[in-house]
Amino acid sequence: MHPIAEQIWDMKYRLHAEDGTPLDMTVADTWSRVAKALAEAEAPESRAHWEVLFREAMDGYRFLPAGRIVAGAGTGRDVTLFNCFVMGEIPDTMAGIFESLKEAALTMQQGGGIGYDFSTLRPKGAPVKGVGADASGPLSFMDVWDAMCRTIMS
């Protein structure tokens, strides 16, 4: 394996114990862990068969699950196996904006990537009824999202 590929595998996909000790000693161990976990979705009587099929397909790189699956399947950790989430529109209220931010933070905490539609937020300078102020616009809230993402990812 190329040294860069090995470094990426070790950092992102290799299973480590809490103290940092590697539990997947080889990429083949990672494939076995993932194949066994994927086979758990099958009927109990056919799991062993599917585990072999998944393992053989991964060995030959004919089947390569998404990164979150390789990183999380069979680890016993409470993480998402989905790479990306399209979260939809953000409500144009303070409560809606910060509820969406909380949802994004919790999704990222589990390892998922997020995408939001900020177009529903009123533009900078638009009046905010009832408070006698102007809206700061979607870019200011994108800065809040960026700060949250940096915090969760650190």
Q: Biggest sheet, strands in spatial order?
A: 1-2
| H/E series | HHHHEHEEEH
Total number of β-strand segments? 4
Mean pLDDT across the residues is 94
Please state roughly what percent of the residues sit in beta strands, choosing from under 5%, 5-15%, 15-25%, 25-35%, 35-45% or over 45%: 5-15%
Whole-number total of structural domains = 2
* Helix proportion: 40-55%
Low-confidence stretches: none
Q: Overall 3D geometry?
A: elongated
Describe this structure in words.
This protein is mainly alpha-helical. 49% of the residues lie in helices and 10% in strands. The protein has a two-stranded parallel sheet. A two-stranded antiparallel ribbon has the order 3-4. The chain is elongated and about 65 Å long.
Comma- or semicolon-separated keywords:
4 strands; single chain; 49% helix; two-stranded parallel ribbon; b-12 dependent (class ii) ribonucleotide reductase, Chain A, Domain 2; elongated; mainly alpha; 6 helices; 154 residues; two-stranded antiparallel ribbon
Write the layout of secondary structure elements.
Blueprint: H1 3-13, H2 27-39, H3 47-59, H4 67-72, E1 84-89, H5 94-109, E2 113-117, E3 127-128, E4 133-134, H6 138-153
Parallel strand pairs: 1-2
Antiparallel strand pairs: 3-4
Question: What can be said about this structure in brief?
Answer:
The protein is mainly α and 154 residues long. The protein has six helices and four strands. It has helices at 3-13, 27-39, 47-59, 67-72, 94-109, 138-153, and strands at residues 84-89, 113-117, 127-128, 133-134.
